[in-house]
Amino acid sequence: MTARSSRRARLLTGVLLLPASLWYLLLLVAPIVIIVVFSFGNSGPTGGYAGGFTTDHYADLIANNIDPLITSLRLSVIGTVLCLLVGLPLAYYIATRAGRRKGLFIVLLVVPFWTSFLIRTYAWLTILGPEGLGGFIGGITGDDSFRILGTDWAVQLGLVYGYLPLMVFPLYVTLERMDRTLVEASKDLGAGRWATFRQITLPIALPGLITGSILVFIPMMGEYVIPNILGYGRVFTVGSSLVLTFLESRDWPGGSAQAVVLVAIMLVSVTFYVWFINRGRRGRDVSIL
Amino acid sequence: MADQDLDSILRRMSQTQVNRRGFMAGGAMAGMAALVAACTGGSKATDAPASAAAPSTPPASAAASEMAAASVEPVFSQEPTEGHLWMYNWSDYIDPGNIKEFQKRYAVDDWTYDTYASNEELLTKLQAGAGGQWDVGAPTAEFTPALVQGGFIQKIDWSKVPNAKYIDKQFKGLWWDPKDEYQMPKDWGTTGIAVRTKYVTEDVSSWKNFFDVAPKYSGKIVIVDSPGDVFVAPLKALGYSLNSVDPTELSKARDLLMALAPHVLALDSDQYQKKLQTGEAVLGLTWTGGLDGLIQDPKTADTKYIIPSDGTLYWLDTWVIFANPPHPIAAHAFLNFIEEPAIQAQETITNAYATPNDEAKKLVPQKILDDPTIFVPQAIFDSGLLESAKDVSTDKNRVAIWKEFKSSIGKK
Lengths: 289, 412
Known about the structure:
A: mainly alpha; B: 19 helices
């Protein structure tokens, strides 16, 4: 009886997981395998992939193409930290202090998503442009050549603006479920604000913090549209480099090699990040989870 | 009154912002135009260009319109179409009124319009196996050989496109398709120099001048984000072919480009006209799209488009039928329809690019024919200054130089 029902349960699990398995197999595993294979091949004379085996593309990448990776990494790390600095207090406020206005704040966070991402990014062109903030500051300081658009600052701002909600939502969800009596208990036992935050709130928020950071960091790493529009093509990122290699030069193997390295860097940095955050948690005397 | 204002705004938007090579701007503008139209409840948006253009048509062309009206009669026994037409084209590159007319006349209920931002994108998609999704496309002529080689386009059955007879002979029998089997010319134009003469006082009439004055206008130069166009400037300034793949010539061109890179404000194919409009950029290596609107606006009437005297690139976009199209009858019917003089004239008025259709030109207002940003003066065309592009974008040296240039923009 039990053997049969457990077999049925296993079967049911298999059937239910089938769509997701197929989805990931076809749209994640297969493309990655293709990219890895392509990255070791030759380019065809009119572009595309022409088979063969060579490691030239990786050698070329290391020799000539490290700068865009470093630029993207810098923008994404700073962007993630900024999202965290802005997002954590915001999520904390909405989750614990906003009271009846909680729903309103959530809606306000979601509203921008109703407009196309592209149009919102173009809107920044006007806000920061010569007829907007950039021109205003230039006018005040009398510096005619002052500019916000086309600098790292504009790109950084655009990235934080674009991805902030993805940091706030997971943080909000974890903080919202937090048992407030734990904070009271901590204070009763004599812990100050900082100690309470560090030992109670932060560990509880940790899963949200990890999820949020990953949700923000990964798309920032591959971001193409924001650097291209707000950076005026002066901020040359991995995304720019991929577009240049795949589309403008039609060099699929070269582009694949860059994509493989990008995926590898993301895997390594995310793994390290999760390990680093969890390491701190394990070493703590007071465990709340 | 308010409606009229809206009309003129929408028309201005369609003329200044629409850029054949700019999908992002195109998409954004289309969205905003839709928003504006929705707010005012106006279906006027699409009718605006037609109604606005009508009064300015010179009386001399009345006879021609009659003739055009006559050609509306089906010239061959009209085969019923499949009722579908799937197009793959640059963004906003066809008059919306003409689309409606075609749908009505040929009972095409299902019209889809997918867009690409570059010929490279089109080719990449087809190489990746995206064929069979579209009937008709409009790549640039120099890509014809690659499209034929890949088996991505098929021969056009000219017996079904009698209106092709209106196409100007100077666009026939060219190197990309010597027997004119695969493509039908659509629009053509040049790559050149845009100048705000209010700010740039020097005479910039050649690419050589362009490089000479660049340092003086450091941080105020906009350049289209397209290697095939950017290489034109240094190669022509040095007196070489713009299609050169000679390593020595390219290395000299590289030096000119790298000297230019620190002074460039932006690489921008979508919004260069906006940057010239605000004066953020005063000098540009650009296409003609959108400049017409600046010249007509009193505030930016000092904008000038220059066809450089040391020669430049001319491009020709061409209608093609993809290999094994899902709807071949509708595809041929469309090609014939679009070359009807009255229909083609409306295309020219809406898209603001030169038509190669001789009969259609007779129906286009003289003001547009005389506008150098739209129609290249015949004298320049005959001078041999213009050179068509070859597909050299995969050349190793060019790829390396382009990458070096692109990653050095604005870095001193």
